[in-house]
């Protein structure tokens, strides 16, 4: 019986956190390259560990349902899990230093366009390169906003989710 409750609790948490990820992206779509997904994946990975990959998977499925299939979606399948993996690999060293996490999130934002363009490499290398280069100004915006959001909101969100996890 106890095992059943844990599974239901975990499933509900994954669904809820995935929905928060999806809605946070949808709400800020009018702002180019300013999003909370990077911050939320960061905090989810810190608090919930490997469960972040299930949350990202559900988020990616929500995106597929809304926008349909495209090369962009293939990029989502490796870009967001890679960010979760980076956070998990660094969490032992960085711990709760959200200024450092801000720098990491900023670097991820700066690299996002290159990671995104990588999906085009098998199709057309020249296009992938031009896609990445043309998006560099947007990557800078992504970098700055990720840094600010993680440095300012990271610790409060981490505290809230840590308390919720204990419930």
Q: What features would you describe in this structure?
A:
The protein is mostly helical and 167 residues long. It has one domain (2-166): Arp2/3 complex 21 kDa subunit ARPC3 (Orthogonal Bundle). The protein contains seven helices and no strands. Helix 2 (37-48) runs antiparallel to helix 3 and helix 4 runs antiparallel to helix 5 (98-117). The mean pLDDT is 92.
Summarize the structure.
With about 170 residues, the protein is mainly α.
Task: Record the SSE blueprint.
Blueprint: H1 2-27, H2 37-48, H3 51-67, H4 71-94, H5 98-117, H6 125-134, H7 136-166
The gross shape turns out to be: globular
State the helical fraction: over 70%
Q: Classify the beta-strand content into a percent band.
A: under 5%
**Span between N and C termini?**
18 Å
The CATH topology turns out to be: Arp2/3 complex 21 kDa subunit ARPC3
The CATH architecture can be named as: Orthogonal Bundle
Continuous helix count = 7
**How many individual domains?**
1
Whole-number mean pLDDT:
92
Supply the key terms.
167 residues; Arp2/3 complex 21 kDa subunit ARPC3; 84% helix; mainly alpha
């Amino acid at each position: 019986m106890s095992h059943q409750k844990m599974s239901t609790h975990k499933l509900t948490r994954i669904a809820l956190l995935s929905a928060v990820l999806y809605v946070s992206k949808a709400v800020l779509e009018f702002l180019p390259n300013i999003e909370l997904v990077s911050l939320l994946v960061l905090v989810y990975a810190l608090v919930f560990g490997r469960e972040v990959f299930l949350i990202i998977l559900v988020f990616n499925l929500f995106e597929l349902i809304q926008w349909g299939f495209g090369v962009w979606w293939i990029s989502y399948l490796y870009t967001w899990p890679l960010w979760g993996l980076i956070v998990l690999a660094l969490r032992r060293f960085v711990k709760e230093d959200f200024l450092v996490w801000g720098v990491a999130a900023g670097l991820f934002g700066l690299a996002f366009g290159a990671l995104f363009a990588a999906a085009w490499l098998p199709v057309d290398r020249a296009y992938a390169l031009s896609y990445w280069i043309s998006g560099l100004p947007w990557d800078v915006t992504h970098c700055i906003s990720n840094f600010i959001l993680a440095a300012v909101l990271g610790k409060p969100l981490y505290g809230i989710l840590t308390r919720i996890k204990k419930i």
